[in-house]
Amino acid sequence: MIANKAKILLVEDDASLGFVIKDNLEINGFHVTLCGDGEAAWQTFRQAAFDLCILDVMLPKRDGFTLAQYIRQYNTLVPIIFLTAKSMKEDKIAGFKTGGDDYITKPFSIEELLLRIEVFLKRSQYTVSQAIPIPVFSIGKYTFDYKNLLLSYGTEKRYLTQKEADILQLFCLNPDVTLKREDILNKVWGDDDYFMGRSLDVFITKLRKYLKADSNIEIVNLHGVGFKLEVK
């Protein structure tokens, strides 16, 4: 498979389905950024380079067709695959008119999605993004430089620990998406046991403190589920 280092933007508002697709693509060697709504996806797309986009059609804040139009104005070459529960001919035509390259109707198999991704990546050879540096994230009024572990607010600068930076980057790569506790623990610590869970709570408290100068930023705790970074 042609997956090595290929970067995929996945936009899916169903968090459970989004994580299933993301995990399966990552198992197959892709680097996947998951967004839960069209607006967050557009901001993410502008901050980094992607080799392929997978867009759900029915999205909050900005639907998949509109998002595709914005992406096409910004990048005419990146492949776009639509995911939708609709199978009407008119919807497929609308998708292609907005710049989509392919259309998969839910439910679908991961194997089918992988095959379609491989076809488009072979065509494009995903060469454009390989020279793009790690992006600097904007979080409300803050700037977050993951590579240098630096969180800035105006002239104020704070250097984060690696774990703090890893967690904050995970939130930045998945804005407005509920991240399950076990997913955060596995990605940052490689384990999801009880004591690691208590450590996660400590780190979340620290990040909230670091970001408190901007009242529009909130790390929401969904009890029994996980956390979500919201920027109003």
Distance between the termini: 40 Å
CATH-defined fold name of the largest domain: Rossmann fold
Count every helix, treating DSSP H or I runs of 4 or more residues as helices: 8
**How many domains is the backbone divided into?**
2
Placed side by side, the strands forming the largest sheet appear as 2-1-3-4-5
> What's the number of extended β-strand segments?
12
Mean pLDDT: 84
CATH superfamily of the largest domain: Response regulator
Text of the CATH class of the largest domain: Alpha Beta
State the order of secondary-structure elements, H for helix, E for strand. Answer: EHEHEHEHEHEEEEHEHHEE
User: Sheet with the most strands?
Assistant: 5 strands, parallel
Stretches where pLDDT is under 50 for at least 5 consecutive residues are: 126-132
Radius of gyration: 18 Å
The percent range for strand residues is: 15-25%
What is the approximate shape?
Answer: globular
CATH architecture label of the largest domain:
3-Layer(aba) Sandwich
Instruction: Determine the fraction of residues in helical runs and give it as a percent range.
Output: 40-55%
